[in-house]
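Translate sequence into structure tokens.
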Amino acid sequence: MKCPFCGSEDTQVVDTRANLEANTIRRRRKCVQCEKRFTTYERVDLKMPRLIKKDGSRTDFDRDKIMGSMMLALRKRPVATEEIEAAVDRVIERLRSLGEREVPTSRVGDFVMRELAKLDKIAYIRFASVYRSFESPDDFREAVQEVKAGKKRRK
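Result follows.
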């Protein structure tokens, strides 16, 4: 590891701590040359699958897009940001667990809808209206019936 202060490649690890929640390792290092200390973080770098859009084009996965979509659906709803971030993390884990190089965006949308259904029913309807391109009140009625049916099954 190169020292960010003097550029020396001779550094020592002073302390190591694992963060199990974030799957990272924090290392405090000391430069042998200039004796300054700095922190580095190690994390597993897993490749996310590329996304296949409806028009057939491919794009890189973007966590911020999922987060933004969920935040928009949950706007002015009583759901904590930590809960939303955890839901996004679960969507990402599902995508990684597929083990595929390319995934249709429709699959990602399905994962997001499942998470929104757990977080907030209104947000689920909001997201579904855009994701499924609702064109009539009947489309909304069907989505509401889905939410109600899901609620009954859990009881």
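Note: The radius of gyration is 22 Å.
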